[in-house]
## 1
Amino acid sequence: MTLKFQLDTLEGVDETTQAMYVEKDGKYVLNIEGLPQPEDVSGLKNQMQTLLAEAKEAKRLKKEAEDLAQTEREEALRKSGNVEELEKSWSEKYSKREAELNGLLEQERGTLTTQIRELTVGRTATDIATTLAIPGSAKALLPHIERRLSVEQRDGKPAVVVLDQAGKLSATTLDELKAEFMNDPAFGPLIAGSKASGGGAGGAGKGGGAAKGNIGGTKMERTAAIASQFPDLPLN
């Protein structure tokens, strides 16, 4: 029979086997004489932290030494009158620093561009989607509206502009963009009070037709009605 070195409980273990275990730190372990004890690794962990700290300090000292050596080299070149080498040294230092700053600048520019877009295009698209969509459908409409919007600088300030279907800048206004979505059959199911189905227009047409066809009353009334609808028609 194979015995486990450690058990959480002795339940279900026969009495003979239970006698082979002793309780230790809330667990039951085999009572074996001469068993090597687990090695204390706390000292090793402390040593690891010390080594990491030493490596960090060594890196800092190395940087200081490199800067000092560079300064001393430039001072020696200055005293010797070796202008060419001195200019080369300064050029290398300048190029390295310029690359570092350009990298930071590009990173900041990217972050700023993202934030500006979120505050302009993102907010405008959300407002339009919330205004047009039926309850619960704004999220589905939002990416289609965002695709038609962009931001550009006008008079030193970011302004939201409307793009055409090909993604190019257009003269379309935000209100015209709203109307375009309202009248697009593809988005009809998402739009509150959409005109894309033509139901409203059809109803209006029928009503207008009925009004035009309803010419009754006396002869004078009929003549007045015809004159109002066909002003160029001679009635005499």
## 2
Amino acid sequence: MVTKDYNVQAYLFGGYWEDIGIIKSFFNANFALMDQLPKFQLYDQMEPLFTSPRFLPPINILSARECSVKHSIVGVRSRLEAGVELKEMYN
């Protein structure tokens, strides 16, 4: 295949881009969203993100005695009950 045989165009993208092709980079990109000034803004009113709801069963952890959650992303399906200690929580 030779590019001169096709209509090839380029676009210079100046926004946020992160290669999440491996699990470690996917993990790091998710945690980078918790930075005080993240490179990528999820709540930009000028450029909203739309997604579909996921109706998934919750994760169960049974017989836990004490719980401390530190520097973590707590999912939308999570339920934290009395006695749970949250550290480094971001709004």
## 3
Amino acid sequence: MRKRSWGFVAVGLLVALLLAGVVSNYASSHPDGLDSSLLKGCTVDSEGEITGGSCPAQQEKEHEVGGPLADYGVAGIDNGFLSTGLSGALGVLLTFAVGGGVFWLLRRRGPAGPDDSGDTARGDRQRAGAAG
């Protein structure tokens, strides 16, 4: 990759880390469209607990598979701001590493063969001498 391309990738990674690590802490905690539609028909108190009615959200179960980055935080870190920011930054780095690895594996390679030595002018002279 050229020097200019590396700079572009580095700046993009830095911006993604900043957004995931800092700005994500200021995202809305109100339910999105899917959560909101699942609560239709239920009575919800100020803490978000279902107190009555009938809605699909009542069928919600605990996640069977947890993990160190479950629920937009890092397990074991009590500070919510730090936990969310660290979770976002680790997610960006993990995604960048996997994506970079895939691109590295699939990168274009030149044809491998006897003409791959880089001295094409000498090969051209030899072929021209043999033909003449």
## 4
Amino acid sequence: MTAKIILLVEDNQDDEELALLAFKQAHVANEVVVARDGVEAIDYLFGTGPYAGRDVAALPQLMLLDLKLPKVDGLEVLRRVRADPRTRRLPVVILTSSREEDDLIRGYDLGANSYVRKPVAFDQFVQAVSQLQMYWLVLNEEPPKG
């Protein structure tokens, strides 16, 4: 069985470190690949740019997607993921500090599986990450590949 990968798309270094620490505190053993902007996330998923040659059949089991990203924003990343038959079923959880209702609506309209606001307190962040991991990586039934 291949390792279950989490793709964390996060441009803020403090939030990235907080998320990685929260994964550790929540005993998430999955490999976490970090993309620091929308272009890097797209390159990783589709095996382009610095990820050329990567086995694109080995998709992450879960993508945690921030919205406010440089180069290509999170909503555009989500649009591209849902538009491609290879990635359209990839579970995408928007994990953002955005409180804008328009972001919430557009995220769901573009096919997000879930929308989670980043908790401010670290212990709440750890609890949120633990719950996301339990649901998306343990309980959730994946659709067949292809």
